[in-house]
From TrEMBL:
This is Large ribosomal subunit protein mL64. It holds the Pfam family CR6_interact. Keywords: Cell cycle, Coiled coil, Mitochondrion, Nucleus, Ribonucleoprotein, Ribosomal protein. InterPro entries: Ribosomal_mL64, Ribosomal_mL64_sf. Belongs to the mitochondrion-specific ribosomal protein mL64 family. It comes from the Eukaryota. It comes from Sarcoptes scabiei (Itch mite). Acts as a negative regulator of G1 to S cell cycle phase progression by inhibiting cyclin-dependent kinases. Inhibitory effects are additive with GADD45 proteins but also occur in the absence of GADD45 proteins. Acts as a repressor of the orphan nuclear receptor NR4A1 by inhibiting AB domain-mediated transcriptional activity. May be involved in the hormone-mediated regulation of NR4A1 transcriptional activity. May play a role in mitochondrial protein synthesis. GO terms for cellular component: mitochondrion; nucleus; ribonucleoprotein complex; ribosome. Residues 95-211 form a coiled coil. Its main location: mitochondrion.
Length: 223
């Protein structure tokens, strides 16, 4: 495709401005002028009062419109008054609502101020509780670190060599040690139950012997 070259001189001598290709009524509309060949009132829709008011507000006397037709009629004024009386609040009611709103805001502000002053009185106790909880939290963290270090040392002694907590063998050793501890606890509980059973049997035997001795003594006394 071959493009035709236009020298700069020809462009300057014969400028082609966009405005030369626009309709006259559009150009007049841009510069704020109402031309004779305008298209404002060629449709029935343009004769609505709203459009007439907009046209007069934009062009004024150039529109050749009478200002009086922009004003509402008596019927429209009566309807507006009736509408306001029926659905709109009166000035006294609006004033009362505004005063009530201001009173509510004042009450909320006073309540908030009272709450703030009450909290300020509680501030020393709250600070004391905060620092107490803070120190308790710090102490808990320190105890957890000590437990962790003790666990690492126990696992190293259990395995017999140095090992880091991030080593997979460390978790395996912890699991194995916990299982052994649980097994030892079960064994201890079992021994405790056996001990209690033996003590119960011994008590029963002692009770039976005592009963037998008392019965034999009673027979001897009868003879």
């Amino acid at each position: 495709m071959v493009y035709k070259k236009f020298p700069l001189r020809s462009i300057l001598e014969q400028p082609r401005l966009p405005s030369t290709h626009l309709p006259q009524y559009v150009v007049d509309r841009i510069v704020g002028k109402m031309s004779n060949d305008s298209k404002y009132f060629q449709y029935l829709l343009n004769y609505r009062k709203r459009f007439i008011r907009m046209t007069y507000a934009e062009f004024g006397r150039q529109s050749n419109l009478k200002p009086g037709i922009c004003w509402p009629t008596n019927d429209e004024l009566d309807f507006a008054i009736q509408y306001e009386n029926k659905f709109e609040k009166s000035l006294a009611a609006m004033k009362e609502n505004l005063l009530a709103k201001q009173r509510d805001e004042e009450e909320k502000r006073a309540k908030r101020k009272k709450e703030v002053m009450s909290n300020l009185k509680k501030l020393p106790k709250m600070k004391e509780e905060f620092w107490k909880n803070y120190h308790q939290l710090f102490e808990n963290i320190r105890e957890e670190n000590i437990k962790k270090e003790n666990l690492i040392q126990e696992i190293r002694e259990y395995l017999g060599y140095s090992i880091e907590p991030n080593d997979p063998r460390f978790e395996e050793a912890v699991t194995k040690k916990e299982e052994e501890a649980k097994a030892a606890l079960r064994s201890a509980k079992k021994l405790e139950r056996q001990k209690q059973q033996i003590e119960m049997l011994q008590a029963m035997v002692a009770q039976a012997l005592a009963k037998e001795q008392s019965e034999s003594k009673a027979l001897t006394n009868r003879k």
